[in-house]
Amino acid sequence: MPRRCIRSSRQTIRTIEVTAVAFSPDGRSMVSGSGDRxxxxxxxxxxxxxxxxxxxxxxxxxxxxxxxxYVVSGSGDDxxxxxxxxxxxxxxxxxxxxxxxxxxxxxxxxxxxxxxxxxxxxxxGGARRI
Length: 130
Fold this sequence. Notes:
By secondary structure, this protein is an all-beta fold. It contains no helices and twelve strands. Helix content is 0%, strand content 56%.
């Protein structure tokens, strides 16, 4: 995955691995997940950070709700969390025995889905109305 370097005028301070990126449905915002335990919402045109949400460990997956008002993030801290995209306020948290990994939003407009644990190998997932 790409790495994002945070630089001062004199030296590189640290390198952060970006692990996931998704655009909002209207294309005006994007959300990134990274190895620094954060999911961040950005204005796509300007690159300005809008909100920062923090997990306990690396954020491995991110997505927007179909209306773009919420961000869903999954992390190795065994949680899938729902955040207000504009403010970064946490509105829901699901805890699992293994890493959560949000998948694409369902087209119903009121549902989002979250793959859990070994979803890449075909194991379960769930849905919750927001």
